[in-house]
Amino acid sequence: MKYIWLYVVAVIASLGGLLSGYDTGVISGALLFINETWVLPDTLQGFLVSSVLIGAVIGAATNGILADIFGRKKIIMATAVIFILGSILCAFAPNVYVLILSRIFVGFAVGIVNFVVPLYLSEISPKNLRGTLVSLYQWAITAGILFSYFINAVFAQAVYSWRWMLFAGVLPGLILFIGMCFMSDTPRWLVSKNREDEAEKVFKKIEPDVNIEKEIADIKATLGKEEKKFKFKKWMVMPFVVGIGIMFAQICTGINTIIYYAPTIFKTAGFDSNLTAIYATTGIGVVNFIMTIVAVFFTDKLGRKPLLYFGLTGVMLSLFALGTSFAFAGILGDSLKWVAVGSLITYIVCFAMSLGPIGWILVSEVFPLKIRGIAMSICTVSNFAFNFFVVGSFPVLLHRIGGAWTFWMFGVVSLLCIIFVYFFVPETKGISLEQIESNWRRGINPRKF
């Protein structure tokens, strides 16, 4: 019970993840009905779906510095306002071009929240709970995706179906804004702004038994090792290799082709109606939500790398199986759709307990405090840049080279990512943020952290 306030803070902040997940997942079902309102070619479909990522890149690129200047809390609150306004604009879009612009506006909030909430959670968390609490953010994303699938199913047969689907993001946006009004900023950011009295009060709330004087002294010592005028140093290269590399692994193994296009994949595999495809996709969302719990409970017990090895191996095998099922579609016949369902469920199980949450945990841990905000911003930009390329090209790949070669390609990428994790990703379980920074400074091999 001593951490009760800490968990309250984490749950409220993680609503940003729910909103990110909602706006990621809702387009998958809405797209089927948008195509009935306006008949869209493959390229425009891809651009509509990936347009949110254009805004996400802009949001992530421009707000790392703002998070360091104004604090994590204020940026989260501003993000909630953008989500609310963006949902309203999407719902009332008079044509597809206005809808695309509105999705870009929503994407701006998605880009901000995907670095500022993990950053916030990482900096308020004790080292023994950091993995668990940052995992809550990914769990909230899966909750948002699942919520979007349920909303899609609820409004699938309604008049103005896709408009209601997109409008529903207003409610969690309001809850996030109101909730953050009662939260504090992180003690590490407060110390960096010489607001030590406020930092002490936050420490007393979130970690009652901690030696507050020592914690503040450690933070100040870490800050003091950096010159007032920042200079990029050679030892900082490796944190960026890890951060950007794990973002590549998270996205380029194909997760958002599943999240954005699951109903389209199911219809290609043989499901007859839009409603049936949406129901099948909702099942995927349920699995995604449940299996992320594994990472929430075990990332601080088993460690980051063991879960990454297990998850990436499962992702790779399920992608090869999914590609093979499309290659032998003529032989499988009606069985194709059930092979596709089985492969996608296996993929989601393995991704949800590994790359999904652990990718964000690692980028919130590996950077020095002095540049953590802007560094996480850069990693988030890379995440959405990879995402834009993968999601935008998927419908074109699916129709031009076929499902088999498309999913086999993602399977090969997964194998390369396993090799990357082995050689470059450090195990950060149970290590303080200050110690992680010290290890980088001393040039310790990531395999020996």
Tell me the helix content: over 70%
Number of domains: 1
What is the tally of helical segments? 20
**Into which percentage range does the β-strand content fall?**
under 5%
| CATH topology group | Growth Hormone, Chain: A
SSE topology string: HHHHHHHHHHHHHHHHHHHH
Biggest sheet descriptor: none
Structure description:
Helix 1 packs antiparallel against helix 6, helix 4 crosses helix 17 and helix 12 packs antiparallel against helix 16. This protein has one domain: Up-down Bundle (Growth Hormone, Chain: A), CATH 1.20.1250. The mean pLDDT is 84. It is globular, with a radius of gyration of 21 Å. The protein has 449 residues and is mainly alpha-helical. 56% of the residues are buried. The longest helix is centred in the N-terminal third of the chain and has 34 residues. Helices cover 81% and strands 0% of the residues.
